[in-house]
Amino acid sequence: MSRYAAMFERLGDEGAFGAFVMLGDPLSPSLDTLVEAGADMIEVGFPFSDPVADGPVIQAAAQRALAAGVRVADCFDLIAAFRQRHPHVPIGILTYANIVVARGGFMRDAAEAGADSLLIADAPSLEAEPFAREMEQAGIEPVLIAAANTPAPTLERIAKLSSAYTYCVSRTGITGTHVSGAFDSALIDRVRQVGAPPAIFGFGISTAAHVRAALAAGARGVICGSAIVECAARGGEVAGLVRSLKAATRNDSPAQ
After folding, report:
1. Is 129 a catalytic residue?
2. 256 domain-assigned
3. Is position 179 within any domain?
4. Where are the beta strands (DSSP E) in 87-231?
5. Structural domains of the chain, count
6. CA distances from 202 to 20, 73, 83, 180 (A)
7. Choosing from 25, 40, 54, 184, which is the catalytic residue?
8. What is the rounded CA–CA span in Å between residue 93 and residue 164?
9. What pLDDT is attached to residue 146?
């Protein structure tokens, strides 16, 4: 059983909470902090100069990491160290095709480091099959993105190629907390109908109310990135933010 499948089984009816940070960002919290505060799964970015799916908060984190000299090999080292300390927590990579293609053996290196999944944000489903096959051969689960306006044939392709979970975006555009998302139950229904992996909402998750709305729409979980990265960058209490958002997956947090 994969770590994601084991996580969903362990949680039962409780929603999964995923926390995203940019690896190597000197202002970001440690991965250990996120897990200790309650994150069920971790998603990490690899710093890249042209992250087209990311808003200004995560772009700034990538630039800080690059300025600090962080490279792909360093990111794999950080994942490997995390895996030693947390053998059961799923960890996924979100990155871009340039990084994957430029480094021969990216999927193999990811698997050896202990990563569980890979989402290539700028690889559309029409171009994703070679990547997905290489991931599967290396023992990495492919994750693809679905949106409310994803056509039926594309959603069927996503279901065929992906595993681990389906990354459902709550709005069109880039990551960030600047625009509230819409948690569309119809999208979740469509994901289920085509047999895609469990739906997890991302893009714009920043409050307990967002978490509850996403789960009420039928998602199995949420991923929060920009709110965590922004909180850390301004010197806020990241562990408290993660605890409050995780509490919302159990519906035992105050409304906000």
Report:
1. no
2. no
3. yes
4. 91-95, 117-120, 141-142, 145-146, 166-169, 199-202, 221-224
5. 1
6. 10, 27, 24, 11
7. 54
8. 12
9. 95
Catalytic residue among 9, 13, 32, 43: 43
Q: Quick one: CA dihedral 198, 201, 207, 213, positive or negative?
A: negative
Whether 254 is in a domain gets the answer no
Q: In this structure, what CATH number is given to the domain that contains residue 115?
A: 3.20.20.70
Q: Per-residue pLDDT tens for 50-85?
A: 888 788 999 999 999 999 999 999 999 999 999 999
* Active site (annotated) includes residue 43: yes
E strand residue ranges, the chain: 16-22, 41-45, 91-95, 117-120, 141-142, 145-146, 166-169, 199-202, 221-224
Do 61 and 22 contact (CB within 8 A), yes or no? yes
Distance of CA 74 to the CA centre of its chain: 19
- 192 within some domain: yes
